[in-house]
Amino acid sequence: MIKEVHMPKLSPKSNEYFFGKWDKQPGDKVKTGDVLFEVETEKAISQVESQEDGILKAQEVATGDTTKVGDLVATIEV
Amino acid sequence: MKTDHQTAAPTEAPAKPSWLKVTYDQKKVDKMTHLLSGLKLNTVCAEANCPNLGECFGSGSASFIILGPNCTRACRFCDIPHGHPKDVDLLEPLRVAQATKKLGLTHVVVTSVDRDDLPDLGADQFVRTIKAIKELNPKTSIEVLTPDFQGREDCLDKVIAAGPDVFNHNMETVRRITPKVRNRATYDTSLHVLKYVKEHAPKTMYVKTGIMLGLGEKDEEVYQLMDDLRAIDVDFLTIGQYVQPGPKNYTLREWVPMKRYQEYYKQAMKRGFKFVASSPLVRSSYKAKEELEAVENK
Which GO cellular component terms, listed alphabetically, does the Swiss-Prot or TrEMBL entry include (chain A) (predicted)? Predict the structure, then answer.
């Protein structure tokens, strides 16, 4: 089954962030709690953890992209 | 001709250093956010866009901000909205006490916006909140992080009498930079607040303050501040990195390197503070529970 990963709300005051970098590549095994990617908000670099166990299927955004809360970021095969 | 780079606004912050990385577990944060919004409570974590929110909410810890969300002062370092204040919500103290219970907090931090519009400057709401927390959570230790109450001793007396375990009031920065970043607050008023509390509170109440680095302060100014604080016997000191909330705020001067935090830690401990937290992501209420435990178990 494919699960979609959407951009979480990482900062109470904004809904748009700079996408930093991927910590997992397509084909990599991911476990719940593993850092999937990094996002730059106003006050921090947030490391977003996976909420699923599975295999990273596809990355839908790239470093430097502006992403909005709720945007599709990745898919994970669980 | 000037290039774009040269004409770039000075408010453009330098790239964030790697130590500003924080982890984020969405499920845990969502759970906490849901609980807090259900109780109609504001946290300084969310209002000030704190970088530690993911970690603290993830571990079920939060700092409540009462009398908000709008502040009557517009300090240039701060991200809390400045605006017309709302009526005092007399049920807010009970909700803070209920949230403390629901979250099972063993240590709770209560702070507020500045309320220069109120006759008591907000002191009575601190008293009501402390009392409500104590009633519902007799074992929970309470830390208040107060405004300067314009230095008014009657307001300080009320909060002291309510009996928090830790009385915190932030100096924010060194003397020279204070008028550049704080609004209607002075270095001497804040020192007076800390001195008065230390002199009038029971010996068991700890007095605490915090500063931000990266505003352009020099070593000798930081050491002078430490000396000023020790001269009035302040117990705890927190030192953390200023992160510019937005382009209109006070311009970040520097990401202060880790070794300077370590040096300040050593210098502060040498001067006799009971507890010092000095690290980029330290905020005045960050891991406040661990801080109190460390001192009490000594």
Answer: pyruvate dehydrogenase complex
